[in-house]
Specification:
mainly alpha; two-stranded antiparallel sheet; 14 helices
Amino acid sequence: MSSTAPPSGIDHVDERLLRTTPLKKLLARPELGSVVGAAAVFVFFAVFADSFLRASSLGTVLYAASTIGIMAVPVALLMIGGEFDLSAGVMVTSSALISSMFSYQMTANVWVGVGVSLLVTLAIGVFNGVMLTRTKLPSFIITLGTFLMLTGLNLGLTKLISGTVSTKTIADMEGFPSARTLFASQLTLGGVEFKVTILWWFGLVALATWILLRTRFGNWIFAVGGGADAARAVGVPVHRTRIGLYAGVAFCAWISGQHLLFSFDVVQSGEGVGNELIYIIAAVIGGCLITGGYGSAVGSAVGALIFGMTSKGIVYAEWNPDWFKFFLGAMLLLATLLNAWIRKRVEATKWRPAPL
């Protein structure tokens, strides 16, 4: 075990007693690297894509970012708590399939299907959390198993019930217009159309930020991610915290799933595979550490915004969309390296030379 004592000739001073300048506070923010990266991406496409700066493009970019950002927020909180969820992508599709097939088969109001979907999706999230705490297996293994099971169930049950790999349309059912208004409507501001998912995204970022910085549960999340044994020793309910984080991922998967359903009326059972990696990458670009205990909800939002700008910027620049993965990988590496450099600089300020 490495020693935590300060280097020879240096006294350790309680960091709470050190004077902190505005610059040091800024450097300590986990999302700083992603903000720098977002600014670089914006300038890049502003130069190389003529239509990128048009007002109409703003709504398109924000919509693309919001579809990722809604899930990146709870995934970021889960990563701060030191865990992963590889089932998040297919859970979105599962949520949409449950709403659609239950409403269609039961010939009920679509809101009944939406409610059933919420309960089942939350149960999947709680299942992940309980399995993690009871078995002590890594979250990678637990959620990989859930991912595979949901992938099979999505396809198998859809073909069994509907006879095809997609659901039947529910656009003519009672309650569909009001549900579409909540989950898939659009607003027009200043002549620019904005999807309602952008409001969901902003609201979730604000809620998650408040939880992390202003509540006891937020302190528990950081404590569990920093070290579960140490957190348990000071009275943090580690199991409940982890289960709550997985339930949060499930809740946001439900929101994303309802948007998917009410945007297109039908759902393809094979959708969502691979999206879990995008959510994790957005959180990492936003400053979350793989090891846990560090990150922010705002950072995940900036990471999702980088996705939105890159995916649409390449289209506006009329480039081959295959370049999207290249830019994504480059941003992941650069943001991770910058975040590591910033953390080292911040940690260096916690030591001061002893007076001669």
